[in-house]
Amino acid sequence: MTYAISLALSYPLGALADRFHPLRVAIGVLILYISITLWGGLSIRTPGQFAIALVSFGVLSGCWYTGAASLAQMLLPAGRFASSIPRC
Length: 88
Known about the structure:
mainly alpha; 4 helices; 75% helix
């Protein structure tokens, strides 16, 4: 279930990262993750609530990896990206 939801969200997350910035997307997802973590830690009482929290944790983790995947390309200059030549 987690992977199916993450797969469905991958294209919209990529579009958000392209439209705005991968760092902004990553920060937004982390804020959602913090809120779900607080909710899960403070109010889970039933197995159903645990299942919802578990799927939410997995989906938001996948959202972070997807949204932040192009972060290195955005932060590093294009001419120096993935080069091991030291700058003199």
